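Following up on my earlier thread - several people asked me to post the actual chain instead of describing it. Fair enough. Here it is, all 76 residues.
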Amino acid sequence: MNARPRAHGAALPHLHRRPRRGSILTMIFALEDLWRSRRALNRLDSTALEDLGLSRDAAAAEAKRPVWDAPQRWFQ
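Reply from S.P.:
Thanks for posting it. Predicted structure:
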């Protein structure tokens, strides 16, 4: 066969669309971002935490929160 290769992602164009606001995918992506942010906060050094006005204990406590413990405004 002499088929031309498809462009990357052409076979699944729906995966490149941004989910509509309020969709379950939007919530999943937001929760993933929250999870990553909390882990990154826990990796900051003392100087960066001081710049943010946070103690090491406060950063560790935030990082330990479960991903579903998100701000209430996300569920309204």
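The radius of gyration is 19 Å. That should answer part of your original question.
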